[in-house]
Automatic annotation (TrEMBL):
TM annotation in the entry: none
SUPFAM superfamilies: alpha/beta-Hydrolases (SSF53474)
Cross-referenced Gene3D superfamilies: alpha/beta hydrolase (3.40.50.1820)
One Pfam family here: Abhydrolase_1
Protein name: Pimeloyl-ACP methyl ester carboxylesterase
All copies of domain AB hydrolase-1, residue ranges: 65-251
Amino acid sequence: MAAPSVFYLHGGPALAPVFERARYPDADHVHWWHQPLAKPCAARPFLDLQEATVTEFRRVAAAAGQPLTVMASSFGAHLAVHLARQAPELVKEILLLAPTFNPEQAALRLARRAFRVHTGHEHAGKLATALAMYEDDPGRPRFWDVFGALSLLPDVTELYFGPAGADAARSFAELIHQPGAFDGPTSVATSDDFSALDHSPMPSPFAGPVSVLFGAYDPMIDAEQDRKVWEVIFPQAEFFKVDTGHFPLLELTLEACLSPA
């Protein structure tokens, strides 16, 4: 088996790459890295994840004997930025798929979209109340109240996908219940640690090619607003809008994502 040429950083945090592996079982040139779970009582789980990412990336690049393409989905974009700062010489190019610069705001956009879709649902009022309380008193406790209320609504995962992504949405809904597909405690711990850090955008030392794909039907991202942020980090970036929701890799082909131009 040939060494991988693409290093993949899945979203989440704490989603596993089971969705991508199921869609691309023969993509041996991609290292579908399953990010480690947060250790119990870890003081800084996001910083631990960053360190683990650099370690794994250096290992895979050394085995390949060449720089790698870094492909990152959603929250994984922050790990890609970290790699570009820590080991730019090992990065061939970067591909960001629906990168969420501010995961908290992205999740709140999803919640507002879910409320509009499910206004008549019996639990919609709980979500409306949680959103209003967050607006009055923003912060992580109120954010998790919104997230809890959101989970009471049906078929929320379908909202991630575009009009043509019914098959991808169905597969996602089935696989998310697979053991190991998602770890709630890791998601909470990593997200909270991430939110405690300063994420002011800073130019990256990586000067190679960068492509950013935004889904036209993504319920979590304001493409115009987020583009301005990513342009600060990667001034050389090229931006593309594709007919997907929040997971272009699950709705398009791998080749289309790797070569969006």
